[in-house]
Amino acid sequence: MSLEFLAKIDVLYQHFQAHDQAYSDRLSRYRNIEPESAELLNVLIRTQQSKRILEIGTSTGYSTLWLAHAAESTSAKITTLEIDAERSELAHQNAVDFSLDRFVEFLVSDAQDYLRQTTEKFDFILLDAERDAYCDYWNYLPQILKEKGGLLVVDNVVSHESEVNDFLNLVRDNPKFSTTILPIGAGLFLVTYN
């Protein structure tokens, strides 16, 4: 990872944090992934040599930049979903500013609609969206996650455990999958086929 990328993305993260501190309403905040979690995602993609990446919940693109930085080294293509058009546009502009936009397809879409319709298979999926929809998403995620080597990563499973507990149990109860929780950042839930 270049020092230039790390310095530039740190400045952007501090800007996003300052924005979030100015708002008490949860939906007005950007709620970006923590830097240590984002850095781990970057390493996982490089290790896995991911080629097709799906991000559910773009927000302003902080995590997208980390995914795209890894995608640059693995020649991957990212599809990122955000329901808020303004945030998606801001994320796209951030990717342009980092010269990483060529690796990312920005879609303004309801995630459930996309998941229901897509026929693509992804070897890496990041789920970091509205947590009350996760159980509904699970109806589709197993079909689009590659069975051989595919990895689903879900953020905020320690910090918002009560909100994702039903989802965690739903996934854990499926004997086709192996799971673990990493206490990094807000907590990452890793899911892969057995």
UniProtKB/TrEMBL annotation:
Its EC number is 2.1.1.-. GO terms for biological process: methylation. InterPro entries: SAM-dependent_MTases_sf (IPR029063), SAM_O-MeTrfase (IPR002935). One of its GO terms (molecular function) is O-methyltransferase activity. The keyword S-adenosyl-L-methionine applies. Keywords: Methyltransferase, S-adenosyl-L-methionine, Transferase. Transmembrane segments: none annotated. It comes from the Bacteria. Signal peptide: none annotated. It holds the Pfam family Methyltransf_3. PANTHER family: PUTATIVE (AFU_ORTHOLOGUE AFUA_6G01830)-RELATED. This is Class I SAM-dependent methyltransferase. It comes from Acinetobacter faecalis. The lineage of its organism: Bacteria, Pseudomonadati, Pseudomonadota, Gammaproteobacteria, Moraxellales.
